[in-house]
Every structure is written in structure tokens, then in C-alpha cells.
Amino acid sequence: xxxxxxxxxxxxxxxxxxxxxxxxxxxxxxxxxxxxxxxxxxxxxxxxxxxxxxxxxxxxxxxxxxxxxxxxxxxxxxxxxxxxxxxxxxxxxxxxxxxxxxxxxxxxxxxxxxxxxxxxxxxxxxxxxxxxxxxxxxxxxxxxxxxxxxxxxxxxxxxxxxxxxxxxxxxxxxxxxxxxxxxxxxxxxxxxxxxxxxxxxxxxxxxxxxxxxxxxxxxxxxxxxxxxxx
Length: 230
What we know:
Blueprint: H1 2-15, H2 63-72, H3 80-91, H4 97-112, H5 116-144, H6 157-229
């Protein structure tokens, strides 16, 4: 049957590496009449950075993150990740739903000798590995944000900038206080200067008045004496 040939080919393509010449792709076969809609495993939502509100929507993980996750999911070829690759390979043959997973498991178990409990245990191990790694990443993220501090660990760039910001804010507050003090001193000095100018102006006016009075008095007496001489 064509469907069996496609399943065999999928298993062969999965476990036998390409020889470099590239075999021609098999013609897609028609799904079985009872086949259900192809199963799509749920994709976990990208975790929001711990302690921060999302500002933009992440549309695609960075390649370095994909590479990191790929290393976590690297096994010996007889594990749940290898089984999921078998499932994806057989899905191209037209299988879907429970039939796809059961057929893939039968082929996988025949080749690897892995039973169902062991396969599920392998899935648990990978899930625990991903969960543990996420915990570590979140802890490092919180450390970068300065929410927690690891003894003897050098401060992150964010922590250093936070410290710099705090110091600059303190310096600015101190300068603001000093500026306010100097502003008050300036106002007082200007007021004192204005008072002294008024005093000096008043004193000069008083002197001019006294000088003019003395000059006039002296001139009058001089004129009187001059009249006597004549």
C-alpha cells in the first residue's frame, strides 16, 4: 500500500542520514479517509521578563536562544525528542492524530527497543530540563536587573547604571540645594547692595546740601568784607 511505503520511507529518512546526493521527494499521498486534522503540538507562549511589564510583542526568538534550547534537547537518538522527530517525519506521509503517534511509536519502538513508560519518562526528563534551565535564566535575569544579588558576582551593566543613576540623582539634588542656597544669598546680597547704594546717594545729597550752604555763607561774608575795604 502507498501509505505503508510512505511510512517506511519516513522512518528510513529519519534514521538514515542523507548521502549528499539528495533523493527525490516522494509524491504526497492522499490521507486515509478516517484521518483526523493533523495534530499541531501547542506552542508555549514566550515568558515575560520577570518583574517587568511587556512593552513590545516578541515575534520571533533570537537564534542564540534557539541554539541554546536545541542543546538542551539533544539526546542519544533513543529519547522523546528523537520520537517527536519521527512523528514530524511521518506526518509528511499523510498520517495525523492518534494514528500518526501510534504508528510512529510502533516504528520507533521497533528500532530503538524503547517502551512507552520509558518514552514518557524521557519526555519528563526533557520537560524538567527545560523548566530547570528557565529557572536559572530567570534568576540570572533578576540578577541583571539588580533584584537579587549573588555574593562575589560582579555587578551587571544594569546594576552599574542603576548605581550611576542613583549617584547622579544624589549629586543633582545636592547641586540643586546648593543652587537654592546661592540664589538666596544672591537675593540677600542684591538687597544689601541696593540699601547701601541708597545710603550712599542720601549721604552724597546731604553733603552737597551742606557744601552748598557753607559755600553760600562763606561767599556772603566775603562780599561783606570786600564792601568794607572799598
